[in-house]
Amino acid sequence: MRPGVVAVLVSAACLLLLGAAPADGPAPAPLPARMADTGGGSQLITAVAPDTGSTTGTVTWWDRRGGGDGHWVAAGSAPARFGSGGLTEGTRRVQGTNTTPTGLYDLPYAFGIEAAPRGTAYRYRPVHEDSWWCQDNASRSYNRWTEPRPADCRPTEAEHLITYSAQYAHALVVGFNYDRPVHGRGAGIFLHVDGRGATAGCVSVPKEAMRRILRWAEPGERPHLAIGTSGGATAVTRY
C-alpha cells in the first residue's frame, strides 16, 4: 500500500476514535460516551495509544455539559508520551517494567517544582528539597509522598522529586495502586511534563498542555484519567 494511503487511513482512525465525523457519514459519539465508565464526574482526561507497544499517543481533556445526561465536548488535546516499555493492564502491572498502567484512575492532587499556574483550583503541593516519592517495596511509605524520606525507604528506591526539574515542573498524581497499594505493582505514576523521551511508566505532555490541564481541572467536577489503547484487550473504551 502506498505511504500516502496509509497516512490517510491512520488519520481517519484517529478522528473516529476521538469522535470526529467522517466525511461521508454521521458523527460517532465522542470517546467518553463510548466508554464503560468515566468516573462519575463531568470532567475526564483520556490518554490513548495506538497499541500496547506504543510510546506515544494523544491526551484529550473533556467536559460533560448539561449534567449527568449531557454530552461530552473536548476542551483540549496534546501529544502524549507513555512508558518506554509501552502499556499494560494496570491490575497485572509489575514494578520496574517501565510500562504505563491502563485503566481508569482518580487524580488525588497536583504538585510541582514551579508555582501552580494562575487559576489552578486543584490542591497543589509545592516540591521542596526534602520531597521524595517512596517506591521501596519494603517501606511502610510505599507509593507515597514523604518529607523527609523515612529511614525504611532507601534513596535508591525513591524519587527525589526536586531533581526532575523539567518533568515535575507541574504534575498530577494518578491514583494507580494508590488507595490500597499492592507492593510490587508500581509506585509514582503521574501525569507530568515531557522529559527527553518516553517515560518510566507515567503519562507526559508538553509543558503548556500540562499548565492548561491544571487551569481546566475542577476538583468538584471529579476529573479522572482513563489510559488505554485504540482497541484490543486494553482499549480505553473498556474502562
State the helicity in percent bands: 10-25%
Q: Helix/strand/pairing class, anyone?
A: mainly beta
The largest sheet is: 6 strands, mixed
Shape: globular
Strand order of the largest sheet: 3-2-1-14-5-4
Low-confidence stretches: 1-16
What's the structural domain tally?
1
Task: Quickly give the CATH architecture.
Answer: Beta Barrel
The share of residues in extended strands comes to: 25-35%
Radius of gyration of CA atoms, rounded to a whole number = 18 Å
Q: Can you write the helix and strand succession as a string?
A: HEEEEEEEEEEEEEHE
- Oligomeric state of the chains present here: single chain
CATH superfamily: L,D-transpeptidase catalytic domain-like
CATH topology-level fold name: L,D-transpeptidase catalytic domain-like
How far apart the termini lie comes to: 34 Å
How many beta-strand runs?
A: 14
* The CATH class: Mainly Beta
Helix-strand layout with pairing:
Blueprint: H1 3-18, E1 43-49, E2 56-65, E3 71-81, E4 87-89, E5 100-106, E6 110-112, E7 124-126, E8 132-134, E9 144-146, E10 158-160, E11 171-173, E12 190-193, E13 203-205, H2 207-216, E14 224-229
Parallel strand pairs: 1-14, 4-5, 6-7, 12-13
Antiparallel strand pairs: 1-2, 2-3, 5-14, 6-11, 8-9, 8-10, 11-12
Characterization of this structure:
The chain is mainly beta and 239 residues long. The chain has a single domain, classed as L,D-transpeptidase catalytic domain-like (Beta Barrel). Helices cover 11% and strands 29% of the residues. Strands 3-2-1-14-5-4 form a 6-stranded mixed beta sheet, covered by helices on one side. Strand 1 and strand 2 form a beta hairpin. The chain is globular, with a radius of gyration of 18 Å. The N terminus is likely disordered.
